[in-house]
């Protein structure tokens, strides 16, 4: 039986989220000026309510199903790593493409709380989808995500007009490997690309003497259902899960409408190439939000 590829549907496919019908209903999800200013200054914005308890439960269940390599939609993943950790004693589950497979992880892309905030942080611009990710760190042996800039993995698109939303499905703490950021590092320019699940501190080798002085990470704990937005050049990473609890999250990566391909190569596994210089659009890169007035 052919499994339905949800990338062909550019709208909600379930009742997990409700689409606002009026401008006033959309505006309830807007970030404050202080929040936007914090993001612009520091390169990240923490503790944004994204999901309620029911939504969290549905998405956790979907991730549990997708972890099974026998799931009938598994071939739709762009990447699937049961363990991407460079340290064999730890585990980092990492996968791309879940939006194509299950309804909840598809519909989070159109969550009003997400798209309104994303548009604001991209300069009140229309928001287009890039790709999603799943990250799971099991209890006691969850692996690290090395310090990195997201755009260092995305140079096959330009200009730099990208945004990441990390959303936790469990309470995220220092002990279980919450995200860490270097405030203001989005102004450092593009750095060399480290191995994502390798040596956490590899990035230090790529920093100037001045940048090393300014390398002052902050831990950013979150509650389940809260998101952190960050600029695609902001340095971030996360440590091991040393706790008794899992640390599960999904990530939505987007860019400002108008970003183009900078490569004739395949951009995501299984997705037809977008000719260099051509606008990123179509089945796999849908427009998620035109704007409140759009």
UniProtKB/TrEMBL annotation:
An annotated Gene Ontology molecular function: iron ion binding
InterPro entries: Phytyl_CoA_dOase-like (IPR008775)
Oxidoreductase as UniProt keyword: yes
Keywords: Dioxygenase, Oxidoreductase
UniProt keyword Oxidoreductase present: yes
Cofactor: Fe(2+)
Pfam families: PhyH
Protein name: Phytanoyl-CoA dioxygenase family protein
UniProt source species: Panacibacter ginsenosidivorans
């Amino acid at each position: 039986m052919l499994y339905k590829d949800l990338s062909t549907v550019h709208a909600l496919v379930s009742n997990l989220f409700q689409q606002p019908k009026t401008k006033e209903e959309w505006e309830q999800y807007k970030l404050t000026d202080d929040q936007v200013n914090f993001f612009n200054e520091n390169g990240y914005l923490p503790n944004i309510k994204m999901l309620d308890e029911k939504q969290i439960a549905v998405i956790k269940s979907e991730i549990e199903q997708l972890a099974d390599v026998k799931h009938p939609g598994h071939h739709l993943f762009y990447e699937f790593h049961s363990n991407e950790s460079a340290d064999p004693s730890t585990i980092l589950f990492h996968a791309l493409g879940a939006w194509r497979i299950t309804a909840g992880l598809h519909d989070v892309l159109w969550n009003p709380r997400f798209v309104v905030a994303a548009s604001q942080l991209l300069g009140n611009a229309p928001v287009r989808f890039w790709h999603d990710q799943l990250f799971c760190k099991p209890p006691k042996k969850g692996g690290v995500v090395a310090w990195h800039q997201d755009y260092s993995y995305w140079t096959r698109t330009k200009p730099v007009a990208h945004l990441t939303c990390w959303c936790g499905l469990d309470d995220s703490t220092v002990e279980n490997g919450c995200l860490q950021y270097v405030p203001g590092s989005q102004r450092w320019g593009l750095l060399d690309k480290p191995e994502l699940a390798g040596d956490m501190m590899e990035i230090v080798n790529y920093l100037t003497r001045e940048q090393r002085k300014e390398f002052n990470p902050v831990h950013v704990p979150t509650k389940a259902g809260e998101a952190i937005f960050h600029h695609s050049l902001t340095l971030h990473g996360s440590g091991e899960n040393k706790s008794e609890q899992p640390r599960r999250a999904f990530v939505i990566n987007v860019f400002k409408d108008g970003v183009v391909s900078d490569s004739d190569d395949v951009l995501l596994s299984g997705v037809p190439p977008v000719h260099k210089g051509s606008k990123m659009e179509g089945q796999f890169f849908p427009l998620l939000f035109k704007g409140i007035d759009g």
